[in-house]
């Protein structure tokens, strides 16, 4: 799961990145409206954490932009403003949740996970696709009720596929989803290939349904069959 953190207080931004990365999120940061706008135009995020008071303006404009160009991205506002009016305004703009600063990182993490579950997995505690079952809290994956141990990247890849069933995902978008900004193009495309290969092997049950299909010259598709 890839998230964008729009927060100008560097120490706070860093501590969110540290905590949420350990929880398995790929985190990218923006420290101003300008930076956030640029990222939103270039990349897709599963969720965004947005501070309202940014040096170059009001965070609500980031939220409006996100709603306009990436409606599926979940949004959590984090703000020092306590005013109820701000909270209402934020929720009206289309944010999903609101946390008043100071907040605890475990609280943010819990809200983020519940938001992503609501938005991308129909509110279920487990993500179930045929014989594949994923528990996003424990990060456990079961195939035909037997636990399958995935590496962190394989796990992220599986979740990316499960939220995009039957869609063609380009190799570039997969690389970007797995590594965020730190993509070194040639190397990472090779690594995508090897993660796909391993994931295929690990998902192959007795019936070997072959969910992951290569789309020649483009990328991959997780088929509902
Ligand atoms: Ca701020």
Explain this structure.
By secondary structure, the chain is of the alpha/beta class. 43% of the residues lie in helices and 24% in strands. It is built from eight helices and 14 strands. The protein has helices at residues 10-22, 33-42, 60-69, 84-92, 105-120, 152-162, 171-179, 185-203, and strands at residues 2-6, 26-30, 47-51, 53-54, 57-58, 74-79, 97-100, 127-129, 132-135, 140-143, 146-148, 168-170, 212-215, 219-222. The protein has a five-stranded parallel sheet, with helices on both faces. Strands 8-9-10-11 form a four-stranded antiparallel sheet, with helices on one face. A three-stranded antiparallel sheet has the order 12-14-13. Strand 8 (127-129) and strand 9 (132-135) form a beta hairpin. The longest helix has 19 residues, at 185-203. The structure holds calcium ion. Residues 8-9, 51, 53-54 line the site of calcium ion.
Number of helices: 8
Biggest β-sheet: count, sense, barrel? 5 strands, parallel
CATH superfamily of the largest domain: Response regulator
Helix/strand/pairing class, anyone? alpha/beta
**Order of H and E elements:** EHEHEEEHEHEHEEEEHEHHEE
Q: Classify the fold: give the CATH topology of the largest domain.
A: Rossmann fold
Q: Kindly provide the name of the CATH class of the largest domain.
A: Alpha Beta
Q: Could you say what the CATH architecture of the largest domain is?
A: 3-Layer(aba) Sandwich
């Amino acid at each position: 799961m890839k998230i964008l953190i729009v927060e100008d207080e560097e120490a706070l931004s860093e501590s969110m990145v540290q905590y949420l990365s350990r929880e398995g999120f790929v985190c990218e940061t923006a420290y101003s409206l300008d930076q956030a706008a640029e990222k939103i135009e270039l990349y897709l995020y599963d969720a965004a954490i947005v501070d309202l008071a940014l040096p170059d303006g009001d965070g609500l404009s980031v939220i409006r932009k996100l709603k306009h160009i990436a409606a599926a991205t979940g949004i959590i506002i984090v703000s020092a403003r306590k005013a109820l009016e701000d909270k209402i305004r934020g929720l009206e703009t289309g944010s999903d949740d609101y946390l008043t600063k100071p907040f605890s990182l475990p609280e943010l993490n819990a809200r983020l996970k519940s938001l992503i579950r609501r938005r991308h997995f129909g509110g279920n505690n487990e993500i179930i696709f045929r014989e594949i079952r994923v528990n996003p809290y424990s990060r456990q994956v079961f195939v035909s009720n037997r636990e399958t141990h995935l590496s962190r990247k394989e796990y992220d890849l599986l979740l990316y596929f499960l939220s995009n069933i039957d869609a063609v995902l380009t190799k570039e978008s997969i690389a970007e989803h797995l590594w965020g900004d730190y993509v070194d193009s040639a190397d990472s495309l090779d690594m995508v290939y090897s993660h796909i290969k391993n994931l295929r092997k690990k998902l192959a049950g007795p019936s070997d349904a072959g969910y992951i299909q290569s789309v020649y010259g483009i990328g991959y598709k997780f088929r509902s069959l």
